[in-house]
Write a structure and sequence with these properties.
heterodimer, A: mainly beta, five-stranded antiparallel beta sheet, 59% strand, globular, B: 115 residues, mainly beta, 11 strands
Chain lengths: 113, 115
């Protein structure tokens, strides 16, 4: 069964600190992995998308890594800001049966002063 | 370019009623996907439409249906509403139904509350 598990479920950090969110998946056959940021009451916004051959991709203060062998990904946030407070969702696409997406349940991040 | 728009933003219905949600994709995008988001289950895929045809379908009962018009606008219908249908319904658009590397752009969602 295709599954995406994210950890931790929630996280509180102080402004300016770094943090790393984890995503483990069992989706097969793998096509790509995306990280989304979802602010409360709004739709998700894409941060990064990585295919099998990519093992790191950055978008400003966000850096995603992918280890296709261990089926793990991480999202590292550098110098966190209050506006980083949101839910971060890992999504894995498989190529079987028409590009089906499997979503993680997200990590709720809160950045405090 | 205007983003994905969804109407209405909020909706309250009672059990047994039916509801229709609307989604207008980004101009030029032909693929529209619908998702249900609940606190316990996270985001779950409902279905995808491309060029007025349903291309993919998730594991939801037949009470959930959709359609796409020639201008790529899409509607989703839920009949015989149940309390468990209370959720945020998100619509996402992308230029085509593939390649897989394409990013989906999400709308703000319609929050449905079933009483």
């Amino acid at each position: 069964k295709n599954q995406v598990e994210q950890s931790p479920q929630s996280l509180i950090i102080l402004e300016g600190k770094n943090c790393t969110l984890q995503c483990n998946y069992t989706v097969s056959p793998f096509s790509n992995l995306r990280w989304y940021k979802q602010d409360t009451g709004r739709g998700p916004v894409s941060l990064t998308i990585m295919t099998f051959s990519e093992n790191t991709k950055s978008n400003g203060r966000y850096t995603a890594t992918l280890d296709a062998d261990t089926k793990q990904s991480s999202l590292h946030i550098t110098a966190s800001q209050l506006s980083d407070s949101a839910s971060y969702i890992c999504v894995v696409t498989n190529t079987g049966g028409g590009n089906k997406l499997t979503f993680g349940t997200g990590t709720q991040l809160k950045v405090e002063l | 370019k205007a983003g994905v728009t969804q109407t209405p933003r909020y909706l309250i219905k009672t059990r047994g009623q039916q509801v229709t949600l609307s989604c207008s994709p980004i101009s030029g995008h032909r693929s529209v996907s619908w998702y249900q988001q609940t606190p316990g289950q996270g985001l779950q895929f409902l279905f995808e439409y491309f060029s007025e045809t349903q291309r993919n379908k998730g594991n939801f009962p037949g009470r959930f249906s959709g359609r796409q018009f020639s201008n790529s606008r899409s509607e989703m219908n839920v009949s015989t509403l149940e309390l468990g249908d209370s959720a945020l319904y998100l619509c996402a658009s992308s230029p085509t139904t593939g390649p897989p590397q394409e990013t989906q752009y999400f709308g703000p969602g319609t929050r449905l509350l079933v009483l």
